[in-house]
Amino acid sequence: MAKPNICYHSVRLNLDNEQHCRVHKVLSELNTEIHKSVNQFIVDAVDFYIRSLNDESLVKDAAEQKKNAGYISRDDLDSIRAELKSEVKNEIIMLLGAALGAGGVRVAAAPTGRNSVDAAAVETAGGVKEPDDPAMMELVDSWG
After folding, report:
1. Strand partners, 123
2. Inter-CA distances, 101 with 7, 113, 117, 119, Å
3. Given this model, what pLDDT does residue 116 score?
4. What is the Cα–Cα distance from 98 to 123, expressed in whole angstroms?
């Protein structure tokens, strides 16, 4: 009568295969003074192998479990890093372009001093007016 808490897995060894021959020799001549039983030795060996692989690709749903685990792999991190680098580069180019464009307009529209700079409304790329900074206005007056 089968016990409900025991499951069976059979292993077939081909003695023409060198690897299978090594396994058969060890299992047939296993020192039971050191190891409890052949069954426990096999369980320990398989468990050691599974732990050494960190359960990476042994089960069918490993990829889905990996996503649900919340861990990030090196490949994911590299792709995120590349995306951020690209976005930051594009943002810096846009900001520099807007600053150079606005700076060129400011210089052309206001070469005479503070009153003409105040009159020229300087806008950023978002369409929001920049507030007047007294220290900046003093510097503009000293340059022009």
Report:
1. 129
2. 75, 19, 16, 18
3. 44
4. 10
